[in-house]
Amino acid sequence: MYVTIVGCSSVGYHLAKALLAAGHEVLVIEKSRSRCQLLYDELGSVVLCGDGTDQRILKSAGAGRADILAAVTGVDETNLVACQMAKETFKVPRTMAVVTDTKNESVFHFLGVDVVVNATHLAVTGLEGGVPGRPMIHLLDLKVPGTELVSVSIPEDAAVVGKRLGEIQLPPHSFVSLVVKRYQAELAAANLVLEGLDEVVAVTVADEEQSLYDALTGV
C-alpha cells in the first residue's frame, strides 16, 4: 500500500514511522526544509520538500498511484485542500485528515474526506478519562456528522436509579445502546433497571449532549 502524508508534524512523523515499520510505501510532503532534513536524517528518502496543496508537488510525489492520502498539518484549510485535490485531480481512493477546530469537522465530512480525526476531541476525551467521577466521556465520533458515542456514569443519588430504561425520557435523537454494570455489560432493553454507578453507553448528537446528561444524572 502506498500512502502519501502531507505534513511532518508530530502526527505525520509517527504515522510515517508506523507505516514504514508495517512494510508500507510512504512519502511525506513537508514545506519546512528543517523538518524535511530531520526526517531525511532519520528515515531516509521518504520525504519531499514542498507544498502539499501544490498540484505539481503532489504529482511529483506520485499521488496518482497513492492508495491513501493523509493530511496531518496543523492547518485545517491546508488539510482540506490537500484532500480535495487528491480526490478530484489524482483520484486517490481514500483521504484522511486531522482537524483542530471542531466546527470544521462537519465541513470535512460534507466535502467527502473519508476519515476525519478531530484532534481537539481526542485531547478532551483523554483528559475527561482522568477526571474523578467521569461524568461524561466522548468515546467515538460516528460516521454521521455530529453524531457520537458517549458514556455517562450514573450517580448513586440520580433520579433514574431503580427505573427501567423504557421509563426514562431521553432527547429525541439520543438512545442508549449498552449498560455496563458492576459485573457485566447488558444490551439496552426497555425493562432493564438502572443502578447507581452503572455506565450508560449512548448515541447522541452535539445539541442533545447536555439534555442526555441531565436526564441520566439529575436528582
Characterise this structure.
- This protein has 219 residues and is of the alpha/beta class.
- 31% of the residues lie in helices and 26% in strands.
- The protein has seven helices and eleven strands.
- The strands form two sheets. A six-stranded parallel sheet has the order 3-2-1-4-5-6, sandwiched between helices. It has a five-stranded antiparallel sheet with strand order 7-8-11-9-10.
- It is elongated.
Quick rundown:
This protein has helices at 10-21, 33-43, 55-60, 76-88, 105-110, 119-128, 209-217; strands spanning 2-6, 25-30, 47-49, 68-71, 94-99, 115-118, 136-141, 147-153, 175-180, 185-187, 199-205. The chain is an alpha/beta fold and 219 residues long.
Strand order of the largest sheet: 3-2-1-4-5-6
Provide the gyration radius in Å. 22 Å
Terminal CA distance:
54 Å
What is the overall number of helices? 7
Question: Which labels suit this protein?
Answer:
single chain, 7 helices, 219 residues, alpha/beta, six-stranded parallel β-sheet, elongated
What's the topology here?
Blueprint: E1 2-6, H1 10-21, E2 25-30, H2 33-43, E3 47-49, H3 55-60, E4 68-71, H4 76-88, E5 94-99, H5 105-110, E6 115-118, H6 119-128, E7 136-141, E8 147-153, E9 175-180, E10 185-187, E11 199-205, H7 209-217
Parallel strand pairs: 1-2, 1-4, 2-3, 4-5, 5-6
Antiparallel strand pairs: 7-8, 8-11, 9-10, 9-11
